[in-house]
Amino acid sequence: MTLKHKTFSAVRWTTAATGVRALLQIAQVAVLARLLAPADYGLMAMVSVVLGFASIFADMGMNSAYVQRQNVSEQERSSLFWLNVGMSGALTLVVLVLSPLLARWFGDVRLTPLLMLAASTFVISALGQQVRMSAEKAMNFRPVVLLEVVAALLGFAAAVAGALAGWGVYALLVGGIVSAVSGTLLAWLYLADGWRPLWRFKLADVRGYMGFGGALVANNLVNEVNRGIDLLLGGRMLGAAALGLYSMPRQIVFQIQGMVNPIITRVGFPLIAQVQTDIPRVRAIYLKTLNMTAATNAPLYVGIAFFAPEVVRIVLGDKWLEAADLLRLLAILGFIRSTGNPVGSLLLGMGRADLSLKWNLAMLLVVPPMLWVCSQYGTMGLAWGLLGLQVALFVPGWYVMVRPVCKAGLWEYSVAALRPFFLAGGAFGVGYFAGSLVNDIYLRLGIAMVSAVPLYLWLSFLLNREWVLAMMHLAGRQRVLVP
Q: Average pLDDT of 452-479?
């Protein structure tokens, strides 16, 4: 297959798999939110933020370096594999030892066994991670995403079974462990293609990857601090129940981002890596990636912002109605953050993790103290603080990370990122007015969607035609990402 056809195939399969996973995650949230208490989700949010920090060190950035490097020997690949497994094992031990201290910092002793159990996923995932990354490096996304769907389905079934059995927050952990185990087993069964690592580990084999990997680890660590500081501060200052009310709408917003963005950005990293020496082509790929990501996300986030109370009642249930205003703010935040995700593929594909590190180090001086002040005003203070920060950083982010790497101008960058937001705002404003004429929430949402979605597509056809044509021709008849 040519690079263009591989890109078409990758986008098609990630799109299909994302749709299935979206349905699974919506079903999981809808079911478990009715079976578990907000405090359970607050505890899980604390566990997740600790695991998020720890997972940065699991492979020391070597798997991303492996994808970015085009020529890798069998000896180097084997040494990278064993380094990943060894680092993950060491990380598991560190979390086990620190669990009581972390629980004390959060002020909740229930976290100790939760963290110890959750740490087991590091080694489990590491055993299959490079096999999956190798398939993605070759742009062979079809089996990767199919196996991810199966693993997610098994994890969902395990979580629901645990919740029905009365396991509380442990149901969420069991679901994650089952998903990790099944994902690794399926990767070796269907993605390895007969490959087995050599019984070899030499520092000389991985030394050439350490510069990129080290910069990536440092960048991810600082970025995780900036990304998760709201949960760290909320867990310490607001308590599990209040954090649960905050973390659930946050989870919904981030799940959308995690489902939609990889359709494009996950393909963009290995694609940009393959054409990294052709700057005009890199710029064209990046801007198309940015526009497709923004145009796909805009109706989802804007729709949630307009209909936050209805979404909360339908998806989470009436006991979560306090979270509706938070969901509205976080939905707008989610859209703005989603426009920043493609820059990660750009910087990784171009081997510029160092530039991202410098940016995130600067943010480390701004984000924690600002959010500490905002946390004094509760969960709404955190949400407003995060939203204001994302708006303020839009232009500086372009200037520091996009302009130097691919030479994209501010106007073309802004148009690609923000035009879909305003188109969706106009369309869903009309839908909101149409739906407000009825009282039944299901009928109101139905009328709004019937009004807003066709209008958004029509406005996009007039003013953002490239995205509409890309969606229409996603089957492969015209080029989507590859200029």
A: 78
Return left, alpha or beta for 168; rule: phi > 0 is left, psi -120 to 50 is alpha, else beta.
left
Tell me how far CA of residue 396 lies from CA of 307, 354, 403, 410, 454, in angstroms. 31, 17, 10, 10, 35
Residue 107: pLDDT over 50: yes
Cα–Cα separations (whole angstroms), residue 434 to 125, 150, 306, 441: 48, 39, 12, 13
Distance CA 387, CA 398 (A): 17
The structure tokens listed for 43 are 């505890």
**DSSP state letters, 282-331:** HHHHHHHHHHHHHHHHHHHHHHHHHTHHHHIIIII-GGGGGGHHHHHHHH
The number of angstroms, rounded, from the C-alpha of 83 to the middle of its chain's C-alpha atoms is: 25
Let me know: does 144 contact 16? Beta carbons within 8 Å. Answer: no
Q: How far apart are the first and last CA of the chain?
A: 16
pLDDT in tens, 358-405: 888 888 888 888 878 887 887 888 889 889 988 999 999 999 999 999
| Buried b / exposed e along 374-392 (16+ C-beta atoms within 10 A) | bbeeebeebbebbbebbee
How far out from the chain centre does Cα 210 lie? 25
What proportion of the chain, given as a percentage, has pLDDT over 70?
83
Cα atoms found within 13 Å of the Cα of residue 406, Cβ hemisphere only: 32
Read off the tokens for 94.
């560190």
Q: CA-CA distance, 228 to 420, in Å (whole number)?
A: 27
Distance CA 306, CA 30 (A): 20
Q: In the chain, how long is the greatest CA-to-CA distance?
A: 69
Q: Return the C-alpha torsion angle 323, 328, 329, 335, nearest 10.
A: 130
How confident is the model over 104-124, as a mean pLDDT?
Answer: 86
Query: 385: helix, coil or strand?
Result: helix
Lowest mean pLDDT, pick from 145-154, 184-193, 261-270, 418-427 = 261-270
Domain range list for the chain: 3-472
Residue-level pLDDT at 265: 66
Report the C-alpha dihedral over residues 26, 339, 285, 456, rounded to 10 degrees: 70
